[in-house]
Amino acid sequence: MSLAGWLSASAPAAEPPPQTPAPETAGGWVKYTNNPVLGGDLGTCFDISVIKEGDLFRMWFSWRPKKSIALVESRDGVHWSQPVIVLPPASSGWEDDVNRPSVVKRGDGYEMWYTGQVWRNAGEGGGRSCIGHATSRDGMMWRRGSARPVLSPELPWEKAALMCPDVLWDEQGKLYRMWYSGGEQLEPNAIGYATSLDGVTWSRLGKNPIFQGDGKIGWEQERVTGCQVVRQGDWYLMFYIGFRDIDHAQIGVARSRDGISGWQRLRANPIVRPGLNQWDHDACYKPYAILDGQRWLLWYNGRHGDREQIGLAIHEGVDLGFGQ
Question: CATH number for the domain including 234?
Fold first, then answer.
């Protein structure tokens, strides 16, 4: 069944009901009671990008068993259609696996930046990751612009991997702004920044990385990575992953006036934490937040052992608690 057919045949949309706060959240965030919302028989589902078009949520997600990026759709952000693969691996030599999409809609088209990976000595995290670019008219049929990546690791801090692109179109500046993660292949170490006039040719900021783990903050002392940046009024909000060690991760939020410097971490961090003996027992990864009316919806990856799935957290009210 097509995505449109699945949605028309499904029950009328219902908003996620209010939840009860739990110790594994802070700052007004609450996990959806019936998490996870995507995974199960699909196997490992991770690192997503979401756009809301009218009353329809469209989620592009990384589907590890297929080494591909797939699309699902939903009326409520909880109940999703069956996935359709929209970007499979390619034989270009750098994208044996494709994942970690960032999708931007402009006018009547879509653009996607994504991670292409090749693995060597996978058990040790060996290999290389680069960032590619594709375009689409409908968000489902995608065309790669080139057989080459648009960004590859070059600088010492970027080591072997560039991944987790997050891109915003800056209408005032008439340019694309990308926040990306660089470092080790298994989990990158810090967050960098680049800009582009066409989405293909990118210029890195000279002072990269722009955001790193704070060794004085235990939950993110080891590294930070996998961010999403949202423009909200006069601020840029960064939702990010913090690692206390390579196996345990939580989610925090920070803000900056220019999206580059002067980042202020929320005092309540981490806002989403693993649940003891739950589906996200070991780690909470890769947040993706949307302001939906007067509340925030934040989807994230949760891992228990080697199983990774997508869950939802909700924040009632626009104010995230930074103050003035």
Answer: 2.115.10.20
Phi, psi values for residue 43, rounded to 5°: 85, -160
The CA distance from 124 to 315, in Å, is 38
Domain that holds residue 89: 20-316
pLDDT in tens, 53-87: 999 999 999 999 999 999 999 999 999 999 999 99
What's this model's pTM, rounded to 2 decimal places? 0.93
The amino acid that residue 233 corresponds to is: G
Residue 164 tokens read as: 């987790």
Q: Which residue stretches of the chain are H helix?
A: 3-9
H-run or E-run covering 9: helix 3-9
**Pairwise CA distance, residues 184 & 87, whole Å:** 24
Residue 287 covered by a domain: yes
- For the chain, how are helix, strand and coil distributed in percent, rounded to 5? 5, 50, 45
The distance from CA 307 to its chain's CA centroid, rounded to whole angstroms, is: 18
